Amino acid sequence: MCDDGQLMETCNLLEVADLSVAVGSRAEPVTLIDGLSFRLRRGETLAIVGESGSGKSVTALSILRLIEYGGGAITGGSISFARQSGAVVDLVRQSEPAMRQIRGAEISMIFQEPMTSLNPVLTVGQQIAEAVSQHQGTSERKARAVALSMMELVRMPSPARAVNRYPHELSGGMRQRVMIGMALCCRPSLLIADEPTTALDATIQAQILELIRSLQRETGMSVMFITHDMGVVAEIADSVIVMNRGKCVETGAVADVLTRPRHDYTRALLGAVPRLGSMRGRLLPARFESVDSPAGPISEHNTVKDQNLPLLRLDRLTTRFDNHEGLFGRLHSRVHAVEQVSLDLHEGETLGLVGESGCGKSTLGRSILRLVHPCGGKIEFLGSDITNASQSALRPVRRDIQYVFQDPFASLDPRRKVGYSIAEPLRAHGLESGKPVKLRVEDLLRKVGLPPEFAERYPHELSGGQRQRICIARALAPSPKLIIADESVAALDVSIRAQIVNLLIDLQQEIGIAYLFISHDMAIVERMCHRVAVMYLGQIVEIGSRQDIFENPRHPYTKRLLAAVPVADASRKPTPPALLEGDIPSPVRRVGDEPIVAPLQSLGNGHFVAAHAVGGMELGPA
Predict the structure, then answer these.
(1) Is it true that 8-114+188-271 and 312-566+573-614 share their CATH fold?
(2) According to the per-residue pLDDT averaged within each range, which of 321-325, 372-376, 445-449 is highest?
(3) Residue 534 in contact with residue 610, Cβ under 8 Å?
(4) Least confident of 65-79, 105-119, 253-267
(5) What does the DSSP assignment read for 312-325?
(6) What does the pLDDT read at residue 613?
(7) What is the pTM of this model?
(8) What is the largest CA-CA distance in the chain?
(9) Which of 172, 221, 370, 519 could form an SS bridge with 199, CB 3.0 to 4.6 Å?
(10) Which CATH number applies to 312-566+573-614?
(11) In 34-95, which residue ranges form alpha helices assigned H by DSSP?
(12) Is the four-CA dihedral 559, 563, 566, 569 of positive or negative sign?
């Protein structure tokens, strides 16, 4: 930071003055950013918060001049940036060749949706090495070495193998870590992080935040952190900007804004933040109080039906993926993604599934729907064994089980209007046709908090949070009995997230729908789940009621997950997590090297914990 005796101009790395951005034709432009001004000092972390569509990501794209590639244009203002050479330039007036020299080398950005930002035909190692070679002029061999070191830096399991894998072979959290490594590889002066920890679990999020802080201390790097997670804002930011409809409505030091908000919009945002521990002493899920039910939460109802006849039953379900290497594709190793998982899910119940990125949560959800093929165990739905069912037999099952995928942009057809995508399950299963389809689509859009006219938009015209709401509406279309929600609210801002949680709880009470809720957001899981299962390296290490897991955790890994959750309290200075040393446990094993599956031991009342934890082992299974 700058000394008091220095000129203000030398303190600032970035100064945005009266920035305006619009999209559309010159005759009928739509303003996205309206007169935005702020300064970012050297070594400072500035958080930009606001609802989905408020202009946070547009601000970041405008700084990099990438907004022009999305049909937008900077219509006014200036963006002054102090380059590493010492020159101060207005980015608005720089040529495209000059911007190519700045992007990646001096200003890096971690994008919100990693799957759409990574090249699907190149390995992740090649993509990081390419960025290093382009901006630093290093040899291919040295660039590959930097790529490997970045994979180790962001705590990627089996980094030597990860650099040779393609984006589709990695989980959402792993892809996000690749993006973070790519953004940091050139040690930029400014790092723009657009929801960089959205897809990450609490423990990895804590590690990444500490990694960014340590790099700031080493290099003096400034960070612009775009997020909807107020806990992250409290932990990492020095100052904060609150945006609403393209304008700054409040700004100041993070402690002042979080503890003494002055604008009604800021107060509403903070009131919608889920807080871990807020459900202590309550047996059942409950709606958020301050979002769309100002009179208080509706009374709790036990929606779980028929404990003796589960809707879904998994018996020692196992899913593994083969790794082939060498000229002749010899079987080298296997990824033990899901290892002998057994659990029941009842009608009207919400079962939360939590664990670190790459632990097998998403693979378990996909295995249930047979999107990936399990290699062992049994899947029963409504009393029928569907483990080896034919595609025709799976058709009605896939009507009753709907999936909300983690990456909304990748799961929507970019050539189709979102109304068509929402109606697709209705047409595919012959449930509706003609005008009733249009009315159903409009009703679903209203339910997820979007106006009916959004049916005529394309996915690229929506924000990340809006796209996720479209995916939820599509999953609700055929009135399923079970929804597998894979990080379904991760991309949503706090107020919309609360509305969606309330919507899911209301639907459960109205029609008895069940949810397998895959999430890393422990506060949301605590709010809406009846039971919680904790996964580690493909295995269930603890399972029990919401109260068991959050109020009486017994496994060391469960305790570590809960301890890593950020708290939206600027006065509480977090203890920096120690950056882990040594190899990260990996689910990849050589052929014949079977993992040890610890049996679950009952602690009473449906609370089970892996036997090794009871015996005093420090962490999870080998």
Answers:
(1) yes
(2) 372-376
(3) no
(4) 105-119
(5) EEEEEEEEEEEEEE
(6) 59
(7) 0.74
(8) 76
(9) 172
(10) 3.40.50.300
(11) 56-63
(12) positive
